[in-house]
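Q: I'm writing a short methods note and want an example of a predicted protein-small molecule complex. Could you take the sequence and the SMILES for flavin-adenine dinucleotide and return the bound structure as tokens? Please keep the output block clean; save any remarks for afterwards.
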Amino acid sequence: MTTDYIIVGGGFAGLFLAHQLIKNGKNFQLFSDGKIGASQVSAGIVNPVVLKKFTTFWKAQEQIVHLQKTMLEIAEYTGENFLVNEQVYRIFHDEKEKEIWQKKREQPDLQNFLSSEFVDFQIVSNPFATGKVLQSARLNVKGFFQGMQDFLRKNNFLIEETFDYEKLNPENSTYGNLKFSKIIFAEGIAARQNRFFKNLPIVPNKGHHLLVKFPEPLNLSATLKKKHFLFSVDENIFYYGGTYDRENLGNSIDEAAISQLKNGLSEIYDGSFEIIEKKFGFRPTVKDRRPILGRHPVYRNLFIFNGLGARGILNASYFSQHLFDLAENGTALPQEIDLRRFT
Ligand SMILES: Cc1cc2nc3c(=O)[nH]c(=O)nc-3n(C[C@H](O)[C@H](O)[C@H](O)COP(=O)(O)OP(=O)(O)OC[C@H]3O[C@@H](n4cnc5c(N)ncnc54)[C@H](O)[C@@H]3O)c2cc1C
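A: Understood, no commentary inside the block.
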């Protein structure tokens, strides 16, 4: 059997890469080990503003526009646009923060993202009101995974097993009996065990989330953020998360992170709630907060797409196109994201 591409990993990186290949009529096989990666525990928030400091980031506007277009393209074959038109509202800690927001919105790079309108929500404590982040949205993560996986399965693009590095022969471009032209590794933090790319500085950052059940349905069609993100997944079931931790990287739930989430939620909601799910994942982060893309220096048919950090959705959607252009046409990568910045 022969294929144009192999993709290893079925998180945001792998699935947005798959979209590039589908869109360009390429044949491929995506290996997914079925483990819950960072993408599946993520909140799905698409946000052009760093809410701690009220700043924006490199290519935020282009990334937002690109994601909106990409989700329409994906809707053409999955039948659904998984981008939910619910904006992020930042709950202000005090009057001073509100003033900083107002000042920041005069900056050219922020005026299209920070609304001048302040909004009061009845269902949570927000004595200093909230500021709306324009152009923010939320990906329906569960729907996106279901829709993409169903499509890949139906078209025989998905291999639901662990990719075994021992079966890869990069000199002959074979994986067992499968002959490929190019292979793209998109394994999230597991890339640290990939012997072809293992010296890249990918640092895990562990994040937990909760699903909580309120006694009664709460009417909220927005994402609220003070310490963490809160949004409705179903009537009285809400997502709350996620935490950040670079130190405690064990493979189990950290009770300290759960307490942090419980306290954060109690700060804005004074009623009772029941925790019905606790989950965690590891964000693949990079010190300079830019993804890592590129080609193996010796085996020119091997590529990597990683380091998506805390902005997995925007980064995966936008930069998957850069990786495709590199692999397919040899188009040079911007040096800011090229793996060669670490060599
Ligand atoms: C709690 C939390 C909340 C977050 N919230 C947001 C958010 O709101 N918005 C946002 O944009 N980002 C968010 N993120 C960040 C985002 O989730 C990550 O940037 C993104 O998921 C990384 O995607 P990835 O595909 O590189 O890795 P992953 O999602 O980890 O996917 C890699 C997949 O590859 C599989 N794999 C690895 N090795 C192999 C192999 N040999 N064979 C087969 N499969 C393999 C893994 O099991 C995994 O399923 C959040 C992260 C966390 C932890």
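A: Remarks, as requested: Residues 8-14, 31-33, 35, 37-39, 41-45, 162-163, 186-188, 190, 207, 209, 241-242, 281, 283-284, 306, 308-314 surround flavin-adenine dinucleotide (CB under 6 Å). The first strand starts at residue 2 and ends at 8.
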